[in-house]
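Q: Convert this sequence to structure tokens.
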Amino acid sequence: MLPERCSIMVNGKVCIQPPSHIVSVLFEKEEYMIGLVCNDHILLMKRKAISMQKSGKINKGKIRFQKIKPVMTDCVLNIKNMD
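A:
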């Protein structure tokens, strides 16, 4: 399960938009998720991730944005078989 909201805060306010992309860093054959972002904040997240890399807060590596693909299953929806 993923959080319901974007990871970005703007002017001290949490974005209430649903996330559309998983943000991760690919470093030495390992991939680390660093957040989730909505369509409106992709560029802001990219700038923030680059800044965090420069300051050493996260590993240097390729910053990746992967579109979230919703999947519906009976177990996630908690639908019981009515047979």
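Helices lie at 42-54, 74-77.
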